[in-house]
Amino acid sequence: MNARNDLLWDTLELRHPLPTDGYALNQLVAASPPLDTNSVYCNLLQCQHFADTSVAALIKGELVGFISAYCPPNDSETLFVWQVVVSEALRGSGLGKRMLTWLIDQPGTEKAQRLTTSITPGNRASWSLFESFARDCGAIPVKSMLFDRHRHFAGEHDDEYLLQIAPLPNRPDKPINHHLDDLRAGLRFSNRRWLD
Ligand SMILES: CC(C)(COP(=O)(O)OP(=O)(O)OC[C@H]1O[C@@H](n2cnc3c(N)ncnc32)[C@H](O)[C@@H]1OP(=O)(O)O)[C@@H](O)C(=O)NCCC(=O)NCCS
Q1: Burial class (CB in 10 A: 0-12, 13-18, 19+), 66
Q2: Is residue 61 situated within a structural domain?
Q3: Structure confidence at residue 13 (pLDDT)
Q4: Structure confidence at residue 181 (pLDDT)
Q5: Which pLDDT score is estimated for 93?
Q6: Number of structural domains the chain divides into
Q7: What confidence tens digit (pLDDT) does each residue in 172-189 have?
Q8: Average of pLDDT values for 42-53?
Q9: Which of 81, 86, 158 to mutate to test the pocket of ligand 1 (most atoms within 8 A of CB)?
């Protein structure tokens, strides 16, 4: 770690989002291709309804990073990461991984046994972030098709692959069969093209 990083981490605040972060989040996402932009209203709802399962990163009051995530209504043991964003100037400093690590240690996510996310094939930074996080967890990432370019996006968006990371650290030990069931259950979002 160098002096720039020391200074960065000294001034960094990680906390759950507030509704008043919604507009700044909208601007940060809009400035961060290839992320899909959302309406301000959508970002306000993320900050309000998913606050306990999301994280905002601030430096001197400015929003510099965000993870929007939630537990799907039918699956309280999964934490699904919708979007991760780090402001351009801070990318590659370790902030993305810090936010993920912080988030899985919060009371609002403690029931989650696995983390899932969806990534387009060409998003190298995102694959690297989640693969590095999985390595740190001692977990094996499993990839499957989630939404197909033609079937789900009418050819207007890249494929979205589901990446599942389990088990997460600091959870009660589960028998190995549970993890196998886990892998199958985690693929219920996908069209199972890879495992069946
Ligand atoms: C994806 C993103 C959130 C990563 O955040 P970050 O803070 O830069 O990531 P980190 O610094 O924590 O890096 C984590 C790991 O990924 C690697 N990595 C980060 N960016 C990379 C890149 N462009 N190419 C290759 N590897 C990369 C780092 O080297 C690190 O690996 P290591 O732990 O083995 O050393 C950031 O690049 C971003 O905001 N991109 C635009 C929005 C986006 O695409 N979001 C993801 C889709 S939801």
Answers
A1: buried
A2: yes
A3: 98
A4: 66
A5: 96
A6: 1
A7: 877 656 666 666 655 554
A8: 98
A9: 86
Task: For residues 30 and 20, give the distance between their C-alpha atoms in angstroms, rounded to a whole number.
Answer: 17
Token pair 């537990």 is found at: 71
Pocket test for ligand 1, best of 9, 36, 91, 98 (most atoms within 8 A of CB): 91
Protein residue closest via CA to atom 17 of ligand 1: 128
Q: Retrieve residue 74's tokens.
A: 């039918």
Closest residue by Cα to residue 56 from 114, 124, 64: 64
Q: Which domain covers residue 66, as residue numbers?
A: 1-185
Q: Is 158 in the pocket of ligand 1 (CB under 6 A)?
A: no
Contact predicate 63/26, CB 8 Å: no
- d(C-alpha 46, C-alpha 25), whole Å: 10
Q: What's the CATH number where 47 sits?
A: 3.40.630.30
